[in-house]
Amino acid sequence: MNGGDFVIIKVEYSKEEQSEIIFHIELEKEDKINPSPKFSLNGKKCIFVIPDEVSFDEIHPDHLALVSILISHPFIGKRIVFPKAVSKEFSSKANSIITKYVVENIDEELQPWTSPIDSRPVLAFSGGADSTAALALMPENTAAVFLDRPLPKKPSWSIWKNFLRLMLRLKRGVSLYDKEAPHIACEKLTEFGYDVVKMETNLEYLRKPVGFPVDVANSAPAILLANHMKFDAVAFGTIMESAFGIGHEKFRNYPKSPHYKMWGTLFAAAGLPLLQVVSGVSEVGTSIINRDSSFGHIAHSCMRGKWMDPCRNCWKCFRKLLLDSVVNKEKMTDKELDELFKINEAKRFLSSFPIKHENVLTYSTSKYLELFELDIENNSMMSMLTKRVRGDVIEVDWMEKYFPMMFDLIPEKYREDIKTKLEKYLQPMSKEEQEFVLKWNLEPMLNDEIYQKLNTNFCKKLKNQ
Ligand SMILES: [Zn+2]
């Protein structure tokens, strides 16, 4: 070896108190600790608490390798050495798609992993609206695997904070044993007959600030269970806004995007192709699916509030409450609307130009105008937002439908079944609507002086709410 920076992943299995798989990240050089200005490597030990009945030896080396990539991808310089030697097929497919570094240690004799005949899909379930809607479109035998992030150890002063919180909850009559919202969502799904596994892992603490090293890393627990629970595809709640760039500046041809090419190839190489069941469905569509499906009500989008009791004080709550109001045709009172525009986090997001997932606000304001006869000229925050996000001029019904290109990405085994289920809730977009999506581009609006001015005025007024 001629030097260069590489990452070695070692793996350890412990059965002391609980069954744990521990990935150790070893870096030859430390120069990839800050791969982006946005985050840096914060820890080098990634622990997964696996169910006792899963034996470590049954986990295929290619699956350990895929998890190794998911936890360390941004930090790898030129080479990665996996905990166990991988199949020739996995390594050649990985090396064909990864340009940044090389995967090493190959076992020429090892057969690549293939799913058994009676296999089924798994969903990387978050408890949120999009992944709950995704589940409604999948076969009934789909397993939902929830990545359970342990709470950080709190400094001692927070004992008082916890004590106060406890007293407050007692006062409100909330049970002391009340669990966090996504845990309740998991329990409810189990009651609906789904096979649900919660796996605790500190994966998100590997980087600072806390978060996933790569967006698909939330499926790491599902991959570790793939052989034991017989999975053959991994589903995510990736919606049209993220997959096809709608709501961002420009349409992105997702099947041809570097994201899909890279992760689609790697997951398929491990015998677990991606199953993007809602990639052609917008946030509006997932709200409709959740409104109409038998278990959609269990979804919980807000990270801060309690189950069925969102905090009403975050950006997600802003978007969701407004969207729910039009999807459920329930008008908000002026006071409720005023409260929305006072949310500090929402103010920050709304001040961007364009706003993140702006299309969803275009839909909500357009429908609000249509359903509740909003007076667009009254200079309220709601009418100013409507004009700013073009709710008064843009056709929005396409967001209630699905974008058929999504089926190019769905493994054939599941294509027909998912299409039938999806069409119980949403119709396909017409040719003209698909054309509109293909041409999605916010640039002309961003360069338009009228919208720049609307934005300035809107932001000015928003500041004083
Ligand atoms: Zn909230």
Give structural notes.
By secondary structure, the chain is an alpha/beta fold. It folds into three domains: 102 residues, no CATH class; 200 residues, Rossmann fold (3-Layer(aba) Sandwich), CATH 3.40.50; 113 residues, no CATH class. Helix content is 38%, strand content 13%. It has 18 helices and 14 strands. The strands form four sheets. The chain has a five-stranded mixed β-sheet. Strands 11-10-9-13-14 form a five-stranded parallel β-sheet, with helices on both faces. Strands 3-12 form a two-stranded antiparallel ribbon. Strand 1 and strand 2 form a beta hairpin. The structure holds zinc ion.
Low-pLDDT parts are 170-178
> For the report, how would you describe the main beta sheet?
5 strands, mixed
**Beginning-to-end CA distance, first to last residue:** 61 Å
Supply the helix-strand structural class.
alpha/beta
Average pLDDT works out at 91
CATH class of the largest domain: Alpha Beta
Strand order of the largest sheet: 4-2-1-5-7
The backbone outline, from C-alpha atoms, is globular
Query: Would you report the number of β strands?
Result: 14
In CATH terms, what is the fold-level topology of the largest domain? Answer: Rossmann fold
Portion of residues within helices: 25-40%
Number of distinct helices: 18
